[in-house]
Amino acid sequence: MTPPKRRDDNWIDGLRGVASFIVVTGHLCTCFVPYLLSPMKDEKGEQGMSIFQYPLLRLCVSGRAAVAIFFFITGFVNSLNPVKNARAGNTSVGLKNLARSTFTRSGRLVVPTTAATLIGWVLAETGVFSMAARSDSWWIQGVAEPPDPTFGAAVLHLLKTLVLSWDNGKMDFDKTHWTLVFFLKGSMRVYLALLAMTLLSKRSWYIITLFLYTYSWCTGDCLVGTNIYAGMFMAQLQIDLGSRATSLLPKIVPSIIIVASLFACSYPQENQQWKPWSKKMMDFMVSITPGGTEHSRYWMSVGATLLIFGVFFSRNARKVLTMPLFNFLGRVSFPVYLLHDTVIRTLLVWMVYGPSASRLPAKDAEGKPVPLQRVSSLAFFFIIPVFYAATYFIAYLWNWYVDPKCAKVVEWLKNLMFENEVDVQTGEKPAPLVAVTVDANERK
User: Fold this and answer.
1) Deepest of 122, 158, 191, 228, by most Cβ within 10 A of its Cβ?
2) Which Pfam families match (predicted)?
3) CA distance 225 to 288
């Protein structure tokens, strides 16, 4: 089989890989050590604190920050080519490419997600998640979908999920897919903004993008809007500054920005009032955001934006994220995001709760399910590496075998629906949508 085309190494892929790794880590911590979501184990501090509840060290549970990074990258990558064509005055080429990318990028999100949903459906209907439903983790129980009573009901459930999940985000067979509908909607908002700004001057691009960011902030759109428009803004800087961006600021400034961003991303998801440092952050964010919003999402958005801008202006940070390890993580980041919950509900659950399931009855005398007991803490030191190795190996196989087939389906649909036309050879050939200019000095 022909291997999938390999992308050039770039720091955006590396950052995407780190974000996907943190998403998985955050879900693991939520499963087995949910107290890490708070700044202390209890309100009065009688149970003490874990070392991973301190600022910076608690980034292992910053899954929300990782999601914000994904939205930022969505705005950034989707805007690169249109901004470049607009700056060069290639309006005709830019609009055609925008039309193509609107279709193909949406398809490259929907088709693999559909494939992953089908896998989750088969596993759920065959009872593979039954052990997960008996675990002592509320999070694992919540993502363990029970089988339907009949085959007809199962098929109807699948069809409803495949259709309605792209409206309400309710992915029954993999609850972690709830963000994907927001990625699709966010991409459409990016395309609409790019279409509206195609003929604007460079200065107007920046002004309108800042206005969209401010509007999103003031209306509580901290999950999607603030992040995608910040990504659009950085895409304009990427085109206008190029490799000069890494020499624009003194070396210490990007480092300070990155450290500040990591502190912002350390904001606890729950019970922020339990510690003085997180309560001060909460009070400050309450004073500058609309009422009734998730202040954790705002801090994650601010932290993700600062982090990526810090990396953008830092030559050394780009070098690190361009390393082969981080780029490998980036290339498998989407299948890892799609499949890690399935691996948690199967392989990880079997390793953690299998010994208990072998000696405990499925139901008690009253017919109620008997909760399973997890293995010892020491066993986790062996189980977690196996889980990560399996997750990334499966993601690698997905990239090798499944993703090319999904790409062929999208290409077939594009050829079926698009009119045949001769490409207008005007102006400079547009850069690939995933390309990020990397200074030659950064590769040394």
Assistant:
1) 228
2) Acyl_transf_3
3) 17
Q: How far apart are CA 179 and CA 165, in angstroms?
A: 10
Token pair recorded at residue 37? 């979501």
306 and 264 in contact (C-beta within 8 Å)?
yes
pLDDT score recorded for residue 439: 53
pTM comes to 0.91
The DSSP code sequence of 282-345 is HHHHHHHS-TTS-HHHHHHHHHHHHHHHHHHT-HHHHHHHTSHHHHHHHHTHHHHHHHHHHHII
Name the percent of the chain in helix, strand, coil, to the closest 5.
70, 0, 25
Q: Which tokens go with 39? A: 């700044």
d(CA 260, CA 269): 18
At residue 369, what are phi and psi to the nearest 5 degrees? -60, 140
The series of mean pLDDT values per 10 residues for the chain, 444 residues long, is 57 96 96 94 83 94 96 96 92 89 92 96 94 91 90 95 87 91 95 94 96 97 97 96 92 96 96 94 95 92 98 96 94 96 96 88 75 91 97 97 95 87 46 48 48
DSSP state, residue 127: T
Alpha carbons 258 and 243: distance in angstroms, whole number: 19
- Placement of tokens 């190996």 in the chain: 393
Q: φ and ψ at 15, to 5 degrees?
A: -65, -40
- pLDDT score at 48: 80
CB atoms under 10 Å from CB of 84, counted, come to 22
Distance in angstroms (rounded) separating the CA atoms of residues 440 and 434: 18
293: which residues sit within 8 A by CB, 6+ positions away? 220, 222
Cβ-based burial of 372 (10 A; exposed 0-12, middle 13-18, buried ≥19): buried
Say how far apart CA 186 and CA 72 lie, in whole Å.
Answer: 10
Torsion of CA 313, 321, 66, 115, to 10 degrees: 130
Note the pLDDT of residue 4.
53
DSSP β-bridge partners for residue 363: 369
- The kind and range of the H/E element at 113 are helix 91-125
Count Cα neighbours of 72 within 13 Å in the Cβ-side half-sphere: 25
Cα four-point dihedral sign 231, 25, 52, 61: positive
Phi, psi of 180 (to 5 degrees): -65, -35
Task: Give the CB-side neighbour count of residue 191, counting CA atoms within 13 A.
Answer: 18
The Cα 225–Cα 215 span in angstroms is 9
